[in-house]
C-alpha cells in the first residue's frame, strides 16, 4: 500500500495514511481513462446545432427555367446549395452525442486516474477541512498552505462553507466522493482529499 502524509489546514504534517492498492494502486488503463473523458464531454454536448438543407428551405418548388434552349446552365430549384439563399450541403441537424460505458469500465478508469495521481505524487490528504465562515481568502490561504493552488478538493460530506468559499477561486473545484469523475481528476494538477473522503472511497468501492 502507498503511504502518504496527512496535513492539517496550516500545511503541517500530522501523520501518515495508507492508501488501499485496490483503489490507489491498480494497473493504469490509459485507454479507459481516455474513453471516460470522451464520454463525459460527449454526454455534456447539447447536440442542438442545426442548419437548413435544400429540403428544409422554404420555396424553390418550381424549376426556374426550362431545361434547354436558354443559354443558362440547367437548374432544378432556386433552393439548391449553389444558389444564394439555398440550402446548406450536409447541413448539421440535431443529434444525440452521448454513449455508454459499463460500470466496471467506469470503475477501472476512476481507479486508474487516482493511481496516476498517487504515482505523480499529486495527492494531498488533509485531516479535516472546516471553515468557520464563507471566505474565499481563507480558502485560498489553506490551499496555499497545502501547495495546491490548482486542485480538485474532494470531501466525504458536503460542507457549504468550503464549497462557497472555493467557487470563485480560479483553478479550484470541489466535489464529493460520489460525484468525482476521471475528467476532473485529470484536469486539475493536485487532488486534495480529506481523510473522511479516503475512508468513504474505501467503504464504497471495497467494503460496499
Give a structural overview:
The structure is a single chain. The chain has 208 residues and is of the alpha/beta class. It folds into two domains: 2-45 and 98-207, Ribosomal protein L4/L1 (Ribosomal Protein L4, Chain: A, 3-Layer(aba) Sandwich); 47-96, no CATH class. It is 34% helix and 15% strand. It is built from seven helices and six strands. It has helices at residues 21-24, 30-43, 103-119, 136-145, 160-166, 182-187, 195-207, and strands at 2-7, 13-19, 123-126, 151-155, 172-176, 190-194. The chain has a six-stranded mixed sheet. Helix 5 (160-166) links the parallel strand 4 and strand 5 (172-176). Helix 2 packs across helix 3 (103-119) and helix 4 (136-145) packs across helix 5 (160-166). The two termini are 20 Å apart. The relative contact order is 0.18. The mean pLDDT is 93.
Q: What is the topological layout?
A:
Elements: E1 2-7, E2 13-19, H1 21-24, H2 30-43, H3 103-119, E3 123-126, H4 136-145, E4 151-155, H5 160-166, E5 172-176, H6 182-187, E6 190-194, H7 195-207
Parallel strand pairs: 1-3, 3-6, 4-5, 4-6
Antiparallel strand pairs: 1-2
Helix pairs in contact: 2-3, 4-5
Question: Which features does this protein show?
Answer:
single chain; 208 residues; alpha/beta; Ribosomal Protein L4, Chain: A; 2 domains; six-stranded mixed β-sheet; 7 helices; elongated
The CATH topology assignment of the largest domain is: Ribosomal Protein L4, Chain: A
Please, how many helices? 7
Overall SS class: alpha/beta
Shape: elongated
Strand proportion, as a percent range, falls in 15-25%
Return residue spans where pLDDT drops below 50 for at least 5 consecutive residues: none
Please provide the count of β strands. 6
Spatial strand sequence of the major β-sheet: 2-1-3-6-4-5
Compressed to H and E, one letter per element, the order equals EEHHHEHEHEHEH
Q: Specify the helix fraction band.
A: 25-40%
C-alpha Rg (nearest Å): 27 Å
Oligomer: single chain
Largest sheet: 6 strands, mixed
How widely separated are the two ends? 20 Å
The level 1 CATH classification of the largest domain is Alpha Beta
**How many domains comprise the coordinates?**
2
CATH architecture of the largest domain: 3-Layer(aba) Sandwich
Q: Calculate the mean pLDDT score and round it.
A: 93
Amino acid at each position: 500500500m502507498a503511504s502518504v502524509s496527512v496535513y492539517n489546514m496550516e500545511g503541517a504534517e500530522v501523520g501518515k495514511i495508507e492508501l488501499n492498492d485496490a483503489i490507489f494502486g491498480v494497473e493504469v488503463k490509459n485507454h479507459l481513462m481516455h474513453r471516460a473523458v470522451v464520454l463525459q464531454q460527449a454526454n455534456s454536448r447539447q447536440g442542438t446545432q442545426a442548419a437548413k438543407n435544400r429540403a428544409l428551405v422554404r420555396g424553390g418548388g418550381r424549376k426556374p427555367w426550362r431545361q434547354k434552349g436558354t443559354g443558362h446552365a440547367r437548374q432544378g430549384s432556386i433552393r439548391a446549395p449553389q444558389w444564394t439563399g439555398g440550402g446548406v450541403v450536409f447541413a448539421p441537424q440535431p443529434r444525440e452525442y452521448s454513449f455508454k460505458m459499463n460500470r466496471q469500465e467506469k470503475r477501472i478508469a476512476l481507479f486508474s486516474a487516482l493511481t496516476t495521481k498517487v504515482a505523480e505524487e499529486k495527492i494531498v490528504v488533509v485531516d479535516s477541512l472546516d471553515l468557520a465562515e464563507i471566505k474565499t481568502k481563507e480558502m485560498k490561504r489553506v490551499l496555499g498552505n497545502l501547495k495546491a493552488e490548482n486542485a480538485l478538493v474532494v470531501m466525504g460530506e458536503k460542507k457549504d462553507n468550503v464549497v462557497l468559499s472555493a467557487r470563485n477561486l480560479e483553478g479550484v473545484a470541489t466535489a464529493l466522493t460520489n460525484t468525482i469523475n476521471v475528467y476532473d481528476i485529470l484536469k486539475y494538477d493536485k487532488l486534495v482529499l480529506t481523510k473522511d473522503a479516503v475512508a468513504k472511497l474505501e467503504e464504497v468501492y471495497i467494503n460496499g
